[in-house]
Amino acid sequence: MSETIPAAQSEQINEIQRRLAEGLARIDPYHRLLGRPVHYRVIDGSTFEITYRDVPGIAEAEVLGVKRVIGADCFCTVAPQTAESVTVRFVVSLK
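and the corresponding structure tokens:
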């Protein structure tokens, strides 16, 4: 089932993706997120989820840096994936 996203929210999502593409290299000097598998998903038309998999670890400063790059109201969760890696998920509220 495919969900239609309003134009304003689609623009916001595109802007977030552009910011991440341009800004991640500056705030991720150890390449913990840069180059990792990333998945984007819209939930209920009001929330944008960004999930990085196979991340070897992440520091609080890096999480805060990504939040600044995203530039919107968001929160982050970090969950174990394997013994060597975690899944880092950012959830952004769409306006």
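(Above: one complete record from the training split.) The first helix runs from residue 7 to 27.
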